[in-house]
Design brief:
Translation Initiation Factor IF3; four-stranded mixed sheet; 4 helices; globular
C-alpha cells in the first residue's frame, strides 16, 4: 500500500507516460496479465488503456489487474488507468526512491 503523498507524486510522473498495454474485446486474460506483469517488473509504473470494445470500465479493470498482480492502483481517468508495483529487481532505479531523492533536493536518507 502506498501513501497518499506517494500516490500524488506517482500521478505527476505518470502524466507524461503513454499507455503501454491495451485491453481489448478479449478482456483481462491471463496473457494480458502476464504482459502487464513483465512490464511492471521493469518499469514499476505503467499506464494502461481500455479500448471501447472491451466492455469494462477503468475502475473495475484496474481493481481486477491490481488484485491479480498485487499492485496498487494510482489513478483512473476515462478509459485509462495507472498502476504501480515495486519491482524486486536490483538492476533498476526504483521510482519511489527516485521520487524521495528528487523531491528532497538531492539529499540522501
Amino acid at each position: 500500500m502506498i501513501s497518499t503523498k506517494d500516490r500524488a507524486k506517482l500521478r505527476s510522473i505518470a502524466h507524461t507516460y503513454e499507455p503501454i498495454v491495451q485491453i481489448g474485446k478479449g478482456g483481462i486474460t491471463d496473457a494480458v496479465v502476464d504482459s502487464i506483469a513483465l512490464v511492471l517488473d521493469k518499469r514499476e509504473l505503467i499506464k494502461i488503456r481500455l479500448l471501447k470494445n472491451s466492455g469494462l470500465d477503468a475502475r473495475t479493470a484496474s481493481d481486477e489487474v491490481c488484485q491479480k498482480l498485487g499492485a496498487d492502483g494510482v489513478q483512473c481517468i476515462g478509459n485509462i488507468f495507472v498502476i504501480y508495483k515495486k519491482s524486486d529487481r536490483k538492476d533498476i532505479n526504483h521510482i519511489l526512491w527516485f521520487m524521495f531523492f528528487y523531491f528532497n533536493g538531492g539529499k540522501s536518507i
